[in-house]
Design brief:
It holds the Pfam family FdtA. With 137 residues, the protein is mostly beta strands. The protein has a single domain (3-132), classed as Jelly Rolls, CATH 2.60.120. It has one helix at residues 126-132; strands at 7-10, 13-14, 21-22, 36-41, 49-54, 59-65, 68-73, 78-83, 88-92, 97-101, 108-113, 122-123. The strands form 3 sheets. Strands 1-9-6-11-4 form a 5-stranded antiparallel β-sheet, with no helix packed on it. The mean pLDDT is 94.
């Protein structure tokens, strides 16, 4: 995948005077099977999350509360997305380096993943990532 193909998707928002509700279903709003869900919260000011890529795993990232930025990198192009609505999510395909920054106070980041945790699926070294993408020898 190329960063230029990355997109924020709209998640159905059911408005109600008692409070709004949003829902996602695998293969419906999310273009993959959901095998794992996790959330990141209480990120100290100035800290960064992510800093890796995946060989197989796909993700949908949603700002359930607050805001943060997600920077995607395919080895040749970078693109930054602001996530700040619980009714929108960023789909990240395989082979994309991601970094999450600029967490607002109280931000909660939900990640829906296509695979269970497998350490061998992660690429943590950026130079290794560039080699994996064929950008660098």
């Amino acid at each position: 995948m190329k960063v230029s193909e990355a997109k924020i998707i709209d998640i159905p928002k059911i408005e109600d005077r008692r409070g709004n509700l949003s829902v996602v279903e695998e293969y419906n709003q999310i273009p993959f099977k959901i095998s794992r869900a996790y959330w990141v919260y209480d990120v100290p000011g100035g800290e960064s999350r992510g800093g890796h890529a995946h060989k197989k795993l796909k993700q949908l990232i949603i700002a359930l509360s607050g805001s943060f930025t997600v920077t995607l990198d395919d080895g040749t192009e970078r693109r930054t997305f602001l996530l700040n609505h619980p009714y929108q999510g960023l789909v990240i395909e395989t082979g994309i380096w991601r970094t999450l920054d600029d967490f607002s106070s109280g931000a909660v980041c939900l990640v829906l993943a296509s695979e269970v945790y497998e350490p061998e699926d992660y690429i943590y070294d950026y130079e290794e990532f560039l080699k994996y993408k064929g950008v660098k020898d």
